[in-house]
Amino acid sequence: MKIVSRNEELLRDALSCIPQPSRRTSLASCNKLIRFEDISAAAFKIQCGVQKTPCMYSRLSKQYGMDIYLKKEFLQYTGSVKERGVLYLLMSLPQDQQRKGVIVASDSNFSMAVAYHASELRIPVFVIMPTSTAPGRVKMCREYGAMVISYGTTAKDSQVHARRLAQENGYLYLEEEDSAVYLSGLGTVGLEMYEQVPKLDAVIFPAGGHCGLLAGSAAALKHLNPHISVIGVESESFPVLQQSLKAGHPTEDQACNNHHFYGDVSGVCFGSNSLQLTGKLVDKVVAVREEDILISMLRLLEYERATVDAEGAIGLAALVAGKLPELKGKRVAVVICSGNLELHLLQQCIARALTLDNRVCRFSLVISDCPGDMSKLLEILAREEARVLDIKQERTFVTSELFTVEVICTVETRDKIHTAQLRNALLERYPTTAWTER
C-alpha cells in the first residue's frame, strides 16, 4: 500500500464499502463526500467505543434568560469530542493497514484520541511529540498504550520525523483533516443532541481553525430539522473561519499562535470540505474575546462542576459576552467539547477569571504607622465581609509624610456590587485609596 501524507484516498475507499441509501439533494450540493447516511452509519459503528454523553439542562439558564442544555463531550475517556471522528477513522482503515500501524505527530486532543483508540483496537500506534510538550500529556499518551517519541523543538520537526518513519516502516501518517469519515464521526454529536433535547431552537459549537465538529454536526442537524440555527464561535484573536469564509478558501491568520491556552481553537482552517459545509449549513459565526472565554470557564466550574479548556468553554462564551441576543427565551444547546486543561494553566485561568469577574480586587492606601491603625483597616474589611487574600506593608519607599506606611491589599468579594460597596466604604475612611485597575 502506498503511504501518503494525507489519507483521503484510503478513507474514500473505506467509505465506499458502507451501504449508502439515496442521496439528499441539499447535502449533495454542499459536499459530495459526506451525507446524513454516512453520519448515521458512523453512529452505529462507534456506539460501543465512545460515550453517549449527557446533554443536560444547565443552572446557568436563568442567568442568561434562555433554556441552556450542555452537551458534555469532555466526559469522553480522553476528555475530547475528537474521539468520535478518530474511532470511526481507525475502524474504517483496511485490515492490512491496521496491522502495520499508524503514526501521529502533535500533542493535541486528536493525537490523544488516536493513542487511546488505536491501542483499544490493537493497532500499533506511535506518537511523535516536540520536546516542549507538557510532561502530563506525554505520560497520558503512554498510559493509553501508544509508543511516544519526543523529537524536535517544534511541531514541524515532529511532523517531518513522523512522515519519515511512516515511509520507512509502512505506518499510515494521520493528521487531523476533513475527510468524509472523520467528519461523519464528529457529526454523530449532532444526532445525539437532536435525540436528547426536543424542540431545539439553536445549537452552538466551537469553531476556529478545526471546524470539523461544526461542519459534521451541522450536516446532521440541518438534515433532521432545517429550522435549527447552527452557530459557530471562534476567538477574536484569530478569526480564521470568518476570514476563510470571506475569502472562499482556507486561509492562515498571521496572528495565530500556539499558546497552550487555546489548544485546538487556534490554527489554520484545515480543509475545503468542512469550510464548504460550514458556508452552506452554518447560520452564523461569531467571535469572542479571551476575557469572555475565561469567564465562561469560571461559570462552568462553579455552576456545572466542569473543568474545561478554552475549546470547551468558547461556545458558552458567546452567551456570556451577549453576542447572541436573538436567543433570549429559546432552547439552546451548547457543546462543551474538551476538558484537557493543563494543571499549571488551570490555576492561572481561575485567578484571572476571578479578577475579570470583579471578585478579586487590589487597592493601596497610606495609613499612620501607629499601633491600632492596621486593626482599624481590618475592621472595615471584616464589616464589609471582604476576604483578605494578601496584605503587604511598605515603609522604606513611601514618598508621603514621615511615619506612615503604604498598605497593599488583595481581597475577594462576592460580585461587582459587593466590590463597589467595599470601595465606597474605604474611600469614606481613606480618601486617597488607589484601586488597581484590571
TrEMBL record:
Q: Which Pfam families match?
A: PALP
Tell me the ranges covered by the ACT domain, including all copies: 362-438
Q: Which cofactor does it need?
A: pyridoxal 5'-phosphate
Keywords annotated in UniProt? Lyase, Pyridoxal phosphate
UniProt keyword Zinc present:
no
Q: Which GO terms describe its molecular function?
A: L-serine ammonia-lyase activity; threonine deaminase activity
Q: Name one GO biological process term.
A: L-threonine catabolic process
Kindly give the InterPro entries that the UniProt entry links to this protein.
Answer: ACT_dom (IPR002912), ACT_ThrD-II-like (IPR044561), Ser/Thr_Dehydratase (IPR050147), TrpB-like_PALP (IPR001926), TrpB-like_PALP_sf (IPR036052)
SUPFAM superfamilies for the chain: Tryptophan synthase beta subunit-like PLP-dependent enzymes
Protein name (database record) = L-serine deaminase
